[in-house]
Amino acid sequence: MTIQRRFFNAGLAGLAGIAAVGAPGLSQAQSDKPVEGKQFLRLAQPLASAGAEGKIEVFEFFLYTCPHCFAFDPALTTWSKTLAPDVSLRRIHVGVGAMHKLHQRLFYALESLGRLGDLHEQVFKALQIEKLDLSSEKAITAWAVGKGLDGAKFGAAFNSFGAQTRLGQSTKLAEAYRADGVPALGVAGRFLTSPSMAGGIPQALVVADHLIKLARSKS
């Protein structure tokens, strides 16, 4: 079953039900280990790592239009600063709708221009708080110029072959991880968890830490 049929369709309706779909949560205060099949899933077929040699890769699958992703992002950013040197976090904007593809190209354009670090949160705020209409290339370019980017350079990055290639790669990666909701975390090509599965935002990061330890010990 493809990712289009499973999940990224019809504008996602805000993913209103995602918080209610998961299994029982894991409290940070609990000493019990996360339960496979409840707080996380193990991929039947491990994926080949595409990152730096020796790094444990963590992928966040998200959408700028998803309010749950917006809520998750600050905690994920804080958590990322605690990661050991052998762990890397990479955000992956997903989606197959026309507007999602525009936002994917925005994400990858900012990344290629070295502006993702300071403007990633600003994109979320533009859509989630300011309620700006970023549903066309013209509107997105105007927003980018308003943030100090050169219009011509941004346009070139937005429409580059590299950005188009990344669109396809991100969809294939989400499908390979069987990420059927966002936000979700894929770990080391072997595991998947999410706030929905884990029972909340803090719990998802506790589970992610556990999965990193499993990956490190090759369990």
From TrEMBL:
SUPFAM superfamilies: Thioredoxin-like (SSF52833). It is found in: Periplasm. Pfam families: DSBA (PF01323). Residues 103-192 form the DSBA-like thioredoxin domain. The keyword Ion transport does not apply. Keywords: Disulfide bond, Periplasm, Redox-active center, Signal. It comes from the Bacteria. PANTHER family: THIOL:DISULFIDE INTERCHANGE PROTEIN DSBA, THIOL:DISULFIDE INTERCHANGE PROTEIN DSBL. Belongs to the thioredoxin family. DsbA subfamily. This is Thiol:disulfide interchange protein. The lineage of its organism: Bacteria, Pseudomonadati, Pseudomonadota, Betaproteobacteria, Burkholderiales.
